[in-house]
Design goal:
Number of helices: 3
Oligomer: single chain
Strand content: 5-15%
Distance between the termini: 48 Å
Helix content: 25-40%
Length: about 70
């Protein structure tokens, strides 16, 4: 058992870079930034000095719920 999590094992949080998210959505990194500014993506996590990352689970849930239409 893991005392810090009450005995539960947690899956690691997998994070996507801007480029990886762009490839997944078949768009460009600029397209990702544009979609983000329009509020069309799940919220990213900001890492100082590294950049933005999106949780894979959040992106999967968002896509399963319909996501947005990518032009």
């Amino acid at each position: 058992m893991n005392a810090s999590t009450g005995g539960e094992r947690r899956e690691p949080v997998l994070l996507l870079t801007v480029g990886e998210l762009a490839a997944l959505l078949r768009t460009t990194p600029r397209g990702i930034y544009n979609m983000r500014s329009r509020g069309q993506l799940p919220s990213p996590v900001k890492f100082p000095g590294i950049g933005l990352r999106w949780a894979t689970a959040a992106v999967r849930s968002w896509l399963a719920a319909g996501g947005v239409q990518v032009e």
